[in-house]
Amino acid sequence: MYQIEAIDRNPIFHDSPYNQGVYRFHPIGKGCGASMKTARRFVPPTPPHGRFQLPDAPRRPGERPDFSALKLQPAGAANKPAIDVDPMDIHDLAFGLIRVLDDEGQAVGPWAAKLSVDTLRQGLRLMTLLRIYDERMNALQRQGKLSFYMKAAGEEAVAIAQTMALRASDMIFPSYRQQGALIARGRELVDMMCHCLSNARDNLKGRQLPIHYSWKEGNFFGVSGNVATQFCQAVGWAMAAAYKDTDDVAISWLGDGSSATLDFHHAMTFAANYNAPVILNVVNNQWAISSHQNIAGGARTTFAARAIGYGIPGLRVDGNDFLALYAATEWAAARARAGHGPTLIEAFTYRAGDHSTSDDASRYRPKDEAAAWPLGDPLKRLKDHLIGRGAWSEEDHLRLESELKESVAKAYKEAISYGTLHEGPWSPVKTMFEDVYEDMPRHLRRQRQAHGV
User: How many CB atoms are closer than 10 A to CB 14?
Assistant: First the structure.
């Protein structure tokens, strides 16, 4: 058996925040105590193999957050090509960072979409509602009123801005942090809450974990607990849309960790080969539960750069910039509708909270790392932009927060009138046997009869 000692960081990536570690192997047993005392970090045992390279996070608990080595392209510096551009000519967009809002909150550069003040105010309202909703639902889980929850803290702009940039007829294939897309499409909070409570009004009849939403009427495909499956499904739907000669597009998201799965590459292969009208997003929020994005390949290059090998456009976008996300999604959708195929977008952001209510992020990253993220808070950045344009104020924002908190509280009171997690009422037992077979098999009919339903 061996223990690995972290002896240095890779000198090739010495100035990179995504530095890999260099490790030395020590046999476990007599005489290994001195090595264990001098090692700076140990990882689980693994067989020896030369100078083994193990990707790791830049900082761990007890260390000071530091993003100073992160090279961020200035706002407004990224070029905006025509929608029919040859992907071979825009490789720079996969390595830079499309940004619109600068440090003073001004919209600059060619990606600065000419959005109306009303559209921007609506975006701010929806993001604020999402954050308040998430905080309320997370608190309810801590009180034992929900079994599970996942917040989108720090990532509100991703689902909201991108959904707002699409048509209502476009199909959404979400991951488990895109509840903002439901809110942007007008889903009632009561219905979202009833799903999380698994009560009698849950449209999924208690068959899914909380936050695994589905809404057929809103073109919102069901969230899958098996990560990355939605990428293949989005591509298949997009291929069908093209076959039927519609100009609708599909959009899907997965995390940086999920980009290491086979489904990611299967989806990319089919999207490229069949020129599918689909927008595929890698939400690089730096953490796949407790695994840093370096583990999935972020130490070597950007996730947007993976598009290059498939011959499709790859855009790396500031995931905390509402205007940049809106503009990039609008560009990708226009390209897809015009018959120029798929786009891969990397939303470069930071997961501000725990992965879920089953997680404690302080065990694997510095507690104050989220506050140190150099691209800031998406809500504050859009708010500051509107204030700078004279279209909003701090007083307006306080009134908005008060109004939305009241509406969320009111929605919860209505939701529990349809049942609670512990006391019901819940969906009838007979619904366990429904919605699978058109003609129910005999063995299921016998089971149903045995339950008296």
Answer: 10
- Rg of the Cα trace of the chain? 24
Helices 189-197, 117-142: axis angle to 10 degrees equals: 20
Both 235 and 317 in one domain: the answer is yes
Q: Please tell me whether residues 294 and 390 are part of one structural domain.
A: yes
168 CA to centre of own chain: 20
Q: What is the distance between the alpha carbons of residues 376 and 362, in angstroms, rounded to a whole number?
A: 20
What residues form DSSP beta bridges with 343? Answer: 279
Query: Annotated active-site positions, please?
Result: 351, 355, 364
Domain at 208, CATH number: 3.40.50.970
Residues 125 and 248 both lie in one domain: yes
pLDDT at 1 over 80: no
- Note whether 277 and 402 are same-domain residues: yes
Cα 161 from Cα 174, distance rounded (Å)? 14
Encoded tokens for 316: 């790396």
Rounded (to 5) percent helix, strand, coil in the chain: 40, 15, 45
- For residue 438, tell me if it sits in a domain: no
Verify that 6 and 140 share a domain, yes or no: no
Distance CA 296, CA 258 (A): 8
Task: Check if the beta carbon of residue 148 is closer than 8 Å to that of residue 314.
Answer: no
Distance from C-alpha of 233 to C-alpha of 228, rounded to nearest angstrom: 9
Please name the residues in contact with 82: beta carbons below 8 A apart, sequence gap of 6 or more: none
Tens-place pLDDT, residues 172-219: 999 999 999 999 999 999 999 999 999 999 999 999 999 999 999 999
Contacting residues for 123 by C-beta, under 8 A, at least 6 apart: 157, 160, 161, 164, 322, 326, 382
Question: Which residue is associated with the tokens 């993220």?
Answer: 373
Angle (CA) 397-402-405 rounded to 5° is: 120
